[in-house]
């Protein structure tokens, strides 16, 4: 595990989405997270994976 981990609130702020959306992404398996006690944490590498996968998507207009 890398040193930096994010809370669902921090991930929501980074992606400009709601905290509930982050939890739904975790539930659907779209965002990998782990628990410390009863709180989710997301590794920096996972945040980077989501950024690169969304950047590589092509939008047709």
Automatic annotation (TrEMBL):
InterPro entries cross-referenced by the UniProt entry: DNA-bd_dom_put_sf, HTH_17, SinI_DNA-bd, Tn1545/Tn916_Xis
GO molecular function, one term: DNA binding
Swiss-Prot/TrEMBL keywords: DNA-binding
Superkingdom, taxonomy of origin: Bacteria
Keyword check for DNA-binding: yes
Coiled-coil boundaries: none
Sequence ranges assigned to domain Helix-turn-helix in this UniProt record: 5-51
Pfam families reported for this sequence: HTH_17
UniProt keyword Transit peptide, yes or no: no
Name of the protein in its database record: DNA-binding protein
């Amino acid at each position: 595990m890398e040193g930096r981990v994010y809370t669902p609130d921090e991930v929501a702020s980074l992606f400009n989405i709601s905290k509930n959306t982050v939890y739904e992404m975790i539930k659907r398996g779209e965002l990998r997270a782990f628990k410390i006690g009863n709180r989710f944490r997301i590794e920096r590498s996972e945040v980077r994976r989501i950024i690169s996968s969304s950047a590589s998507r092509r939008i047709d207009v």
